[in-house]
């Protein structure tokens, strides 16, 4: 089997409610591009990437296009050989762009492998959960939501069957205002329901130490990305000083960086984004590093991919439920009666592109 061709298609996926980022960027859609990687056996593997800001996405798609041309003629099952060729060709640029490019292609290769073998990706990876994985709701409760909307949204998430949720804080609000946000969420879901807080790198160490005492009474499960992703010394201080678990890692752009994080004792729960560490293979390596240090990991975004990691990586304890890409596929991530994410059983990632949406393309 050989890779013989590829295609990149663009699409804007409408959001159920406009999204406002931590920096104030507002959008009502999430822009995606999809790589269709084809073999001489007629198998088509899918990889994709997305962004709420459109600035760098065309450059990323162009890089994926170039690299996909570079690997034509190679056996898609030889992922290590393909990865070596990619890194030899792109290593001089370094950083996040390389990881994204490698990830999109790596996803398509795994989708091909699953379809060629007639197996879902999680089984190719070994499999630890056959039917469902633990998940939590992350698709609501944004920073721009009012207190009333937070209370209503939190209650809806619980009513929908989720067993845990995450909400956002981290603007320049006073500590008492942040406490009020935590208070209304806690009151909406009851005293024993797990809640997590995401700051999106909005604080520094001093600000974190100031605000956290106002949140502790609400039994926060974890504090996510409170400070800059590069401040490992600061993270170590927070891990040592606070009684709330510190979670970060989604913004680390190389699986090897997780070695530095765990060696410094700078994380309690590592959050790994497969797009940011070169794909499925990079996620597995990052998770193994964390496992060696007895640290659990959780996934970041892209549940269509992450569910297979949650179902196969031994120390992966939670899969993030985020709906940004749901419109891209005919099959979306489903939650069962126990509040767990159902693991697809179809070959590959088990997803089918929404061709009607693809026909609409992008808005500009």
Describe the structure in your own words:
- By secondary structure, the protein is of the alpha/beta class.
- The chain has two domains: 3-118, Enolase-like, N-terminal domain (Enolase-like, domain 1, 2-Layer Sandwich); 123-342, Enolase-like C-terminal domain (TIM Barrel, Alpha-Beta Barrel).
- Helices cover 37% and strands 22% of the residues.
Task: Please describe the topology of this protein.
Elements: E1 3-20, E2 26-39, E3 44-51, H1 57-70, H2 79-90, H3 96-117, H4 121-124, E4 132-137, H5 147-159, E5 165-168, H6 175-189, E6 195-198, H7 205-215, E7 220-224, H8 232-241, E8 245-248, H9 257-263, E9 269-272, H10 280-292, E10 297-299, H11 303-310, E11 316-321, E12 340-342, H12 355-360
Parallel strand pairs: 4-11, 5-6, 6-7, 7-8, 8-9, 9-10, 10-11
Antiparallel strand pairs: 1-2, 2-3, 4-12
